[in-house]
Amino acid sequence: MLYLTADFFPIFVPLGVIGFYRYLVFMIKILAWFVYRPIQPAECPRYKASKDVTIVVPTIDAGEEFLEAAQSWLACNPNRVLIVTEACMKDKIQAQVLSIGAAASKFTVMTVPKASKREQMCKGIQYTDTDILVFADDDAIWPPTMLDYILASFEDEAVGGVGTSQTVRSVGKRRSIWEILAGFRLTIRNIEVAASTHIDDGVCCISGRTAAYRTVILKDPDFQHKFTHDYWRGKYLLNSGDDKFLTRWMVSHGWATHMQVCKEAELLSTFKDNWRFMKQILRWTRNTWRSDFRSLCTERYIWTRHPFVAYTMLDKAINPLTLLSGPISVIVLCAYLHYHLPAWNIIASYLVWLLATRFIKLLPHFYQRPVDLWALPMYLIFNFYFAFMKIYALLTLHVTEWGTRKEATAGDNGNGACC
């Protein structure tokens, strides 16, 4: 090995340190995920879904998945469901609700004058009178045990917010490459949030696809004002990134959070099955940069309350640099005419290494869906593209439009979930 690297030994040493660091972190996360256990529902629970849970769903154009999602919410027996849309869409949404049948009596359709996800969420908060409020996307499909497992975490009075694990619901009969990539990201996310929850009871983001909170926290007028007047650098009003804001609010106000990562609390959600998936990721990446900067540099509560989460935020910030160090090294070696290995050997060795390590990282996913193995090379390409995207997102944090729909749209899976 020393012979192979002797020509550039001073360069290979720091690269080796970077590689060792990256995989040490990965092994720590895997180990924590492996020993993590979700909180089980109590035999005599303090909270019951039928009297203590209101579901709030901000939306404007609920698609075909809405009816299936609504049926799955009803199977969890909540107290009621508030659908909040913009005024011009009320009749359409109301018709969809009525098509559910007799159970439609549990639904109330409410409106705001103009679509704005945060305004719609606040409208739902104002009309919630149960102890627990659960925000859900209009395409979030739940298992019948979802609310039981969410409520189990609230047995601890210190817990203010609870999140869940996620997986992909295919739009068509087969998953597109975009949906497979989304599935890869969710697998890694589920591992990371379980690990951070086990290590220091923290999480980077409670994804808004399904997120539960104590209603008393959200009823605070100060919270609602700051939630709907959230500006980046004091002049760019933020509409997406609501789940990031809520997670930071829990941390800054002394509330604990918990993630239920298990099949009993795993939701199904749809993703864009075309190139617009990349626009979703760009929006989520900008939200992550803004929120993590505030957590680490402005608010700073995360350092003392959840140091491992703070560390993972820093790690994600430098990830583009560590990822790009590999191909840069390969290019340098190939361009060096006197290096003792031919260019094809260097490139082939590097690609084999990348495929092997990514395969290991995604083993939990391939165990569940081995049919997705063919997409592993595309995942490599996506990783390098994403590294450049993160840099581009950092340079364009002033851009706050939704990206895949109109600016004020709600419900477009617009929650930063692959933090």
From TrEMBL:
The keyword Transcription does not apply. CDD domains: GT2_HAS. The chain crosses the membrane at residues 12-36, 321-338, 344-361, 373-395. It holds the Pfam family Glyco_tranf_2_3. One of its GO terms (cellular component) is membrane. This is Glycosyltransferase family 2 protein. It comes from the Eukaryota. Keywords: Glycoprotein, Glycosyltransferase, Membrane, Transferase, Transmembrane, Transmembrane helix. PANTHER family: EXOSTOSIN-LIKE 2, SYNTHASE CPS1, PUTATIVE (AFU_ORTHOLOGUE AFUA_7G02500)-RELATED. It is found in: Membrane. One of its GO terms (molecular function) is glycosyltransferase activity. Its main location: membrane.
